[in-house]
Amino acid sequence: MSNSVKSKFVKSIKNKKLHVFGLFFLFAFLFLLLSKLSKTYTEDIPVAINFINLPQNQVIVTDSSPVMNATVSAYGFNLLIYQFRKHTIAVDFSKDVYKQNNNYVWVPNKYKHKINEQLSQFTEIILIEPDTLYFPVETLSSKKVPIVLNESIKFKSGYNILNGYKIEPDSVNVIGSEQEISKVKSVETLALNLTDVSTNIDVKLPLKQFNSKLKYSIDETSVRANVEKFTEGTIEIPVTIVNKPLGVEVNYFPKVITIAYNVSLDNYKNVKPLDFKVECDYLEIEQSNKTYFTPKLVKVSPIVKNVKLKQNKVEFILIQ
User: Fold this and answer.
1) I need a surface site. Which of 175, 276, 297, 304 has the fewest CB within 10 A?
2) Cα 285 to Cα 76: distance, rounded to the nearest angstrom
3) Does 2.170.120.40 match the CATH number of domain 144-229?
4) pTM check: above 0.70
5) Who's near 166: CB < 8 A, 6+ residues apart?
């Protein structure tokens, strides 16, 4: 029993010694750190440049954000902040720059005091490199382009849209340098993904931003569509031979072709034969060795969808 008590007593003394040693070590480390940080150092730091008050009709033409290098002097305490965050300063185009040909020119060493205020009041700027920065500019241009709907819509069985999608507005002004907007032919919406649709569509879609150097006159557009119940219909349409030379007689079969289509229930009775036209081109057989015509649907009623010819060959005999 006495040995156990003695052992615990010795162990507690050792633990106290370790704790005391740890505290002395920590104090020594903190003293060394404070003495280091209280000294003055010189260090180079990268500084990004942000443009403000740039004329509205002009744009800076550069592939990347400009960066300058500032050599600063400060206590170690104050230099620590530069290790943990990026630093950006503003260049005021209404005060700090001058125009030279197609460039704006900025001489940063003229504005050390102003830059110093934006960085930190506890540091002193010794040198800024480069000593002169050039910002190439272009006058902004504008071009109107169509808006294209990017959609993946699956309808409930028997349903479809009537009269297509209506996009309002259907175009957008793209604003930017002439070089950049010359590449733009259209602007897509963000994807519209819908499934099992059986009711009318009425949504707002943002426009897809694909170039950070360009701006749009609008940010979004409205997409609407009437969705209705559709049914299948069929109709017989006479076949017409076109480009037949004078004096040539052609006997062909069939003389009419059945067309299948989908149509909304409301428009079912409004589908007429005159809304369709099927043609066979005589030049097709004249320029080849084919023994049949390939019928083509050259006119389709605007109120039907998914139109199909029930026959894809028209046999013929030339009559001398």
Assistant:
1) 297
2) 90
3) yes
4) no
5) 223, 224, 225
Fold for the domain defined by 40-139: RNA Polymerase Alpha Subunit; Chain A, domain 2 (2.170.120)
**Which segments of the chain belong to CATH 2.170.120.30?**
40-139, 232-319
What distance in Å separates the CA atoms of residue 56 and residue 91, rounded to the nearest whole number? Answer: 15
**In whole numbers, what is the pLDDT of the chain averaged over residues?**
82
Asked, as a colleague might, if the bond just before 254 is cis with ω within 30 of 0, I would say yes
Q: What is the pLDDT of residue 40?
A: 65
Backbone angles phi, psi at 26, to 5 degrees: -65, -45
Q: Which helix (H) or strand (E) holds 40?
A: strand 40-52
Q: In the numeric block, which tokens belong to residue 135?
A: 């910002």
pLDDT tens readout for residues 108-146: 888 777 877 777 666 677 778 888 888 888 788 889 999
Nearest residue to 38 (alpha-carbon basis) of 145, 122, 154: 122
How wide is the angle at C-alpha 183 spanned by C-alphas 177 and 185, nearest 5°?
120
201: closest CA among 170, 231, 162, 158? 162
What whole-number percentage of the chain has pLDDT above 90?
Answer: 42
* CATH class entry, domain 232-319: mainly beta
The 3-state DSSP class for residue 80 equals: coil
Instruction: Give the Å distances, CA to CA, from 204 to 152, 185, 220.
Output: 15, 22, 7
Q: 70, 135, 78, 54: which is closest to 109 by C-alpha?
A: 70
Beta strand pairing call for 141-148 and 159-168: unpaired
Write the Ramachandran bin of 164: left for phi over 0, alpha for psi from -120 to 50, otherwise beta.
left
**Beta-bridge mates of residue 187:** 147
pLDDT exceeds cutoff 70 at 234: yes
Give the separation between CA 184 and CA 182, rounded to whole angstroms.
6
Q: What distances in angstroms separate CA 295 from CA 169, 241, 303, 311, one per listed residue?
A: 39, 9, 22, 8
